[in-house]
Specification:
By secondary structure, the chain is of the alpha+beta class. Helices cover about 25% and strands about 25% of the residues. The protein has a single domain, classed as minor pseudopilin epsh fold (3-Layer(bab) Sandwich), CATH 3.55.40.10. Strands 1, 2, 3, 4, 6 and 9 form a 6-stranded antiparallel beta sheet that branches. The chain is elongated and about 80 Å long.
């Protein structure tokens, strides 16, 4: 009697062709999953960044009202050496990545508001200044100030690759007045006159985008915009997704 088991019973592994097929399927899944994961991550960071800027602006206005003092809101630009073309020692080539709230004292000095601190955007997000942020555009608000030229400017608590940013940054700002309004002109206009009836004038806003989407058209990317009413200091937030549909 032949006691040899059938060939199918002896087979305990996969053939080379089967292994290659499985590897091919895994590669296809990864090829689709990685871009989707990256997009989800960028969208999450963008939401966090837009929320942070909006919350800080709202809090600055609230401080002006409750303390009956002028509150200064500063936007910070500094270099991140992990971004190609940027160096900590050259803040003018950096991006706008942080904000901070200051209180103006009776002697005119600006000090960080009590209970507040420097706030940085998530790593891969920035505030776009070249196309979509009148509050940062040099054509509208002038050249930013250098922290190293301002003895009262605080050092930023940031260390990147062992290097401290300190006072190697630039900033621009506007103010909330004690009644909640701002010191901004009625309209944003190149040159700074801000004539309300000028067809070329614009509103005041700041836009947060992913670093990889810098300078792209808004109708093809995700973004978060916060608009400021210069008369009341109130704000509106816009957070469309790609294709212009609200999120």
């Amino acid at each position: 009697m032949n006691s040899t088991p059938p060939r199918s019973a002896l087979r305990t592994g996969f053939t080379l062709i089967e292994l290659l097929a499985v590897m091919a399927v895994i590669a296809v899944v990864i090829a689709f999953a990685v871009p989707a994961t990256n997009q989800i991550l960028r969208g999450s960071q963008l939401s966090q960044g837009g929320q942070m800027v909006g919350d800080q602006l709202a809090y600055a206005r609230q401080l002006a009202l409750t303390k009956n003092r002028t509150i200064e809101f500063r936007f910070y630009r500094f270099g991140d050496p992990e971004t190609p073309g940027e160096k900590i020692d050259e803040p003018e080539k950096g991006r706008w990545r942080g904000v901070q709230i200051f209180e103006l004292l009776e002697n005119g000095a600006a000090v960080p508001a009590s209970g507040t601190a420097f706030q940085r955007l998530p790593r891969m997000t920035i505030m776009d200044s070249k196309k979509y942020s009148t509050l940062l555009g040099e054509d509208f608000v002038g050249k930013p100030k250098k922290a190293q030229d301002d003895p009262t400017a605080p050092e930023l608590p940031i260390e990147i690759n062992g290097k401290k940013v300190g006072k190697k940054y630039e900033y621009t700002s506007f103010r909330y007045l004690p009644d909640g309004s701002t010191n901004l002109p009625a309209k944003a206009k190149k040159g700074g006159s801000g004539a309300a009836d000028d067809d070329e004038s614009d509103t005041w806003y700041v836009t947060v985008v992913s670093l990889s989407d810098e300078n792209k058209e808004l109708n093809g990317i995700n973004y978060a915009t916060v608009q400021i009413d210069p008369f009341t200091g109130s704000q509106k937030s816009f957070r469309p997704t790609i294709g212009g549909k609200p999120q």
